[in-house]
């Protein structure tokens, strides 16, 4: 039977330090993915993921289990991301303004429109997410890519679930505008009305 | 109810986390509100677009080939440095003691070096004890002041000879310990210097690689001649 995170944490706190390896194997790809979506850099995702696990290793003896281990780990990773963004002076990896600037200088390279024409929507989407305010970007990443529930996101961010939903709504609204402006979304996708 | 009153239901339903009641209320609203219906469809479309952004296939940390330029390279180098320093401190006999002035770090002799000193001390203690026994064993005779003075001089000479021998032994032992410690410190300094040199080498390689990459980028950013 696979041990739960909580069991592994308890084993670690009881002196079985090898149980931390299982926690790393279970969560490192997820954490790297989250950091990558927030910072946009593969190298930084690897570096900060390692740093997050180092911090977790040091702090785990004092972990009280008030939140789930995964939420706590995401908290550590997000704090590292925020520190890194502050160090960059708020500069994201590819800002929306930079993409538009590229559009006005065709000699510099492929424009956003070229990217759309070549069906490189992924790049546009990445830039659109990067251009979101940090608080909206975090919620989008945790919900869309990490597939956490609203309650889990609320626990990670220390916010009421209603605030999480509001931030997500604003983030999606902004993404809709940005993507439509770049011609990514021509026709709204058919979507059924919510059915209970 | 106004449209913005449905914001939370809207988002919860979009991700399949709304309660049945919330779903029903939202459904009723969407039937009546064209703007919210359009937004509902648009948000679904945005979610589809978001799926197109794929993250790299990150590997598990233990099985990954770590590039020297990553933080692990630095960690490894730092570990080497720390081990060297740790070794140096251990060999130098660092002692940390808590006293009235707080924690005090002190370089001193290791327990192994104290052993010969302790042996010498024991030997000297035995000599003093035998002297004391000899004095006590000497029968008290009324030999007059002259004999008494001669005995006192004899004892003083014995004590002085013993003290001199002790000092010489202590000096020899301390000198030997000092020389050995100095040699070990020189060796450890050399090891630390080698570690620093290793770190500098890594930095140099990293800078060279960065410079090369910047060069490529500059070259690539030049407009192509037609």
Keywords, separated by commas or semicolons:
heterodimer; A: 196 residues; mainly alpha; 0% strand; B: 226 residues; two-stranded antiparallel sheet; 2 strands; 73% helix
Can you tell me about this structure?
The complex is a heterodimer of chains A (196) and B (226). Chain A has 196 residues and is mainly α. Helix content of chain A is 68%, strand content 0%. Chain A is built from ten helices and no strands. In chain A, helix 2 packs across helix 4. Chain A is elongated. With 226 residues, chain B is mainly alpha-helical. In chain B, 73% of the residues lie in helices and 5% in strands. Chain B has six helices and two strands; from the N terminus they run H-H-H-H-E-E-H-H. In chain B, helix 2 packs across helix 3, helix 4 packs antiparallel against helix 6 and helix 5 packs antiparallel against helix 6. Chain B is elongated and about 135 Å long. The two termini of chain B are 64 Å apart. Chains A and B meet through helix 2, helix 3, helix 7, helix 8 and helix 10 of A and helix 1, helix 2 and helix 3 of B.
In brief, what are we looking at here?
The complex is a heterodimer of chains A (196) and B (226). Chain A is 68% helix and 0% strand. Chain A is built from 10 helices and no strands.
Number of strands of chain B: 2
Round the Cα radius of gyration of chain A to an integer and report it.
19 Å
Summarize the biggest pleated sheet of chain B.
2 strands, antiparallel
Indicate the low-confidence ranges of chain A by residue numbers: 96-110
* Mean pLDDT score of chain A: 84
Helix content of chain B: over 70%
Low-confidence stretches of chain B: 62-73, 88-99, 101-113
For this entry, what is the oligomeric state of its chains? heterodimer
- Secondary structure tally, helices of chain B: 6
Distance between the termini of chain A: 35 Å
Shape category of chain B? elongated
Distance between the termini of chain B: 64 Å
């Amino acid at each position: 039977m696979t041990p739960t995170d909580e069991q592994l944490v308890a084993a670690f706190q009881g002196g079985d330090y090898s149980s931390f390896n299982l926690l790393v194997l279970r969560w490192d790809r997820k954490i790297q993915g989250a950091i990558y979506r927030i910072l946009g850099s593969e190298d930084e995702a690897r570096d900060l993921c390692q740093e997050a696990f180092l911090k977790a290793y040091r702090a785990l003896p004092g972990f009280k289990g008030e939140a789930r281990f995964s939420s706590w780990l995401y908290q550590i990773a997000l704090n590292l991301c925020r520190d890194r963004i502050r160090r960059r002076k708020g500069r994201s990896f590819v800002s929306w303004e930079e993409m538009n600037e590229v559009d006005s200088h065709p000699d510099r390279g492929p424009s956003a429109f070229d990217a759309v024409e070549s069906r490189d929507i992924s790049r546009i989407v990445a830039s659109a997410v990067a251009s979101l305010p940090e608080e909206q970007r975090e919620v989008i990443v945790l919900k869309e890519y990490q597939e956490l529930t609203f309650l889990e996101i609320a626990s990670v961010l220390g916010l009421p679930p209603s605030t999480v939903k509001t931030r997500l709504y604003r983030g999606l609204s902004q993404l809709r505008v940005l993507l439509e402006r770049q011609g990514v979304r021509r026709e709204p996708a058919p979507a059924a009305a919510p059915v209970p | 109810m106004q449209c913005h009153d449905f914001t939370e239901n809207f988002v919860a339903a979009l991700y399949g986390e709304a309660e049945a009641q919330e779903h029903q209320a939202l459904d009723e609203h969407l039937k009546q509100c064209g703007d919210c219906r359009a937004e509902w469809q648009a948000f679904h479309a945005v979610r589809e677009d978001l799926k197109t952004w794929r993250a790299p296939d990150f590997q598990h940390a233990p099985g990954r080939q770590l590039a020297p330029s990553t933080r692990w390279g630095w960690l490894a180098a730092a570990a080497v440095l720390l081990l060297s320093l740790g070794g140096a401190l251990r060999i130098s006999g660092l002692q940390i003691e808590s006293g009235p002035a707080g924690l005090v770090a002190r370089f001193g002799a290791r327990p192994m070096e104290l052993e010969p000193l302790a042996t010498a001390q024991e030997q000297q203690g035995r000599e003093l004890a035998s002297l004391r026994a000899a004095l006590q064993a000497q029968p008290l005779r009324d030999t007059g002041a002259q004999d008494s003075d001669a005995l006192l001089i004899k004892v003083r000479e014995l004590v002085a000879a013993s003290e001199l021998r002790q000092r010489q032994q202590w000096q020899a032992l301390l000198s030997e310990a000092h020389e050995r410690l100095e040699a070990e410190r020189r060796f450890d300094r050399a090891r630390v210097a080698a570690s620093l040199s290793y770190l500098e080498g890594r930095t140099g390689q990293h800078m060279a690689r960065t410079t090369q990459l910047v060069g490529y980028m500059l070259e690539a950013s030049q407009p192509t001649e037609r």
